[in-house]
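CORE FACILITY INTAKE
Project code: CF-77B
Contact: R.S. (postdoc)
Sample description: multi-component assembly, two entities in total
Requested service: structural model of the whole complex
Turnaround: standard
Below are the sequence entries exactly as provided by the requester. Do not edit them.
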Amino acid sequence: MRKSSKKYLSKLFLLISIAVALSTYQILYAQVFTISGKVLDSKSNPIPGVNVILLNTNYGAATNDEGAYEILNLPSGNYTIEFSAIGFEKIRKENVVLENESFILDVILIESVVLTDEVLITAGKYEQKKSDLTVSTEIISGKEFTERNFSNLEDAVRFVPGVTMTEDQISIRGSNGYSRGTGSRALLAIDGLPFYTGDSGDIIWEMIPTLEIQKVEIIKGASSSLYGSSAIGGVINSLTRDISDKPLTIFNGFYGVYDKPYYNEWDWSGGMRPFNGLTLSHSQQIEKFGFNVSLTRLEESSYKQDDDFKKYIGFLKAVYNFTPTSSLTLLANTFNKRAGQFLYWKDSRNALVPPDQNLGDRIETNRYLFGLIYKSLLVDQVLMNIKTSYYRNYFKDNADIPNESTSNLYRGEVQLHSTITNYLVLTGGVEGTLSGVESSLFGNPDAFSLGAYLVGDINFSFPLIASIGVRYDYSKLDSLEGSGAVSPKLGLNYKLSKDFILRSSLGTGFRAPTTAEAFTSTATGGITVKPNPNIKSEYNLTFEFGVNYTPISFVNIDGAVFQNEYYDMIEPGIDPEDGLVFFSNLVRARIQGGEAGVILNLLPNELSLSFSYTYLWARDLETGTALRYRPRHIFYSGLDFRKWNFDFGINFRYTSRVEEIDDELVDLGIVVDGDLRVPVYTTDVNLGYNFITYGLPMNIYLNIKNIFNYNYVELIGNIRKIRNYSFGFNLAF
Amino acid sequence: MENIKYFKLQSAILLLILLALACDDHGIEPRPETPADKISGFRGKITFVNEWPDSIKRAFVVVFKDPLLDPTDFSIFNLKFLSREIPLESPVYEYSSLDSAFIPEVPGPFPPGSYAYVAVAQQSTPEISLARKDWFVSGIYYTSGDTTQPGKMVIPDSAFVEDINITVDFNNPPPQPPG
């Protein structure tokens, strides 16, 4: 009995063991799931190295080169998944329930713009953390260009705090008025290559293909100590996107119409005026060679008569990596435009048509930029950059005696960058430019300039960074006397805590006169403009003190006060000797003010609000009057909401009525009713949807700009864009 | 928690809408058209006494806003009307501010107000010039027969002033402005 009962118990134990083992097997192996998917950026490029973590568990994974991830062997349950990567905003997906099947979850990470130490700024000629900078800086993320249908860079910078535009002329903290394409007090660079014409020294915004932009950095305040002339008011550095590891083709397009004008008197065409654009872009890496290439076609009928255009933009960025530490980059950017030439309205009753005598005025433009950038790590911690570029600018109008101009600008720069120790980073270089002009407007002058600079950034053992730099420039413009300028700067960055950062900078800037300012010779409408062989460089002394404070995780506050003293400011005036208009060093000016901005991430990664206000006091100290085309108050605000696959934004812009304009053009009857101007209130709305979760790498966008159809001018006699609607898409494959 | 989320969302949208509604008008609007009988301006007659000297290359009617007390007052900023060229050898020339002119470039209502100096000015240079030294005043508008000082032309609102007449005696030119 005992034996048999023992046997029986053994059998029972065996049976129970088998049963338990089988049930455990079922639990362990039949009831497990997988979460997998892809992580892409806003342009549908895969993001490798993204951390994918199931919060409050030990499960997690990282994305591979194709942006794919897979988390295996997950028991059923309710999970919160967090996706994080450097340079992107963190995303959490809550309530992911694993019950009966595995889960596929594709997500899009948005590039970080603010509130992160990892944002890198290169406008200082090497990569620095934004929080380490000594000057105020703003960033426009590349995704905004497609989401908000900015087909032109100038449309995007209109919403940057402290920046205003008068038509195509940028003013950073009041640096510029409107000089009709005869020079700029801000320098535009593309991948660090300065981008201005050899004749007028002007910025040609429309030439840059916006789809190729990864981000735009805007440095406010004189940057002559690094960039020399033209950077007297600030720098806009446009960075093109990286070459994709995998073949990537993007097809981007939009179609839109301008609404009818608000007033019937202005309805010159009787219909809604269309505009459209198409871009085809391809990116590929083949072993050591990679390239981005794109072709853009833009066409607009325009809400104004004789303001229509057709533009073709070609872009190539080709990179050859000789070794992991040396590469050669070729940049090529071509631009062709055929357009009407709307200068100003006929009168306020005919605000969207030009004066009779200007009807049919047209212009054709061809521009080419070619750049070569060689980078090499010479020895440990010493990086060399050699940059050369050639910029050709040609335009011709259809006047009876056509105005025609060709300029060729050659530029070269050698730069060395070295991290001497953990505490000292040195950046120095020499550069030179050579330009030649053949023009019916400017004559045939030649010019050259040479510059040398050295900047040291010192990281102290306590949280202070000091940036000390100096640059010397010599410029010679044809028959004008050559002149030199020394531009020193001192900047300090002090972190009271990681959330409370003080910055301050003091420096000088200078701007050599452009060919157009020195040599323009033309007569129109009773006004004769004559050359000024005695014109000389203008200078400024600039000071800024700023604070950045993050009191709680979802609030960031930035404030700054600034003062700019301008000496020998170049402005158009009248020569009392002969009554002719000419550019001369007329004005001693002061521009001072303050700036405050708040970013509220009300619902992290879902809802953010931003506000910025700038007060500008810009005065001609000799006359006591305001400088022309400078508003006293600038206010921008924006709301951005992203949830599910939608994104929604509202952007509002206010600038006060400018006090001073080109009164003489009004008095002389050239711009009839030209005194009409108002404060600017514009509101734009954008709505987007992403199809990536349906396996389709496509975004669509709807934009309504100037939704309240508010009529305003930035430049006298030029009504800015009336209400318009556009639909766009971005397809990547 | 959800309620707080929606409160934040609603507050944000409401704030933006309020800001947007701040622009409760449509900004710049067309100025009303001036009825023909309300157009402000001036007209008159120039009478030339004696023969035109051969040296004169061109002559104009000029209107300055402020008195010409200094050479710099003879400036394009102070010059509010510059007629087209008066045909050489004309014995009489009738003009109007509604005629095509160099200044203003587009004819239309002339701004009401007081204008200190109305004259006929001539040039002998090969090309048109706005330099003071290239101008010679050959006749001045006087009021009430007072030839001791230039007459003031006053244009009331919505009124067209008549009889801004000037006599030009090439053999007896008026006092020249400074410069």
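Facility notes:
- The first strand of chain A starts at residue 32 and ends at 40.
- Chain A is about 5% helix and 55% strand.
Invoice: internal transfer
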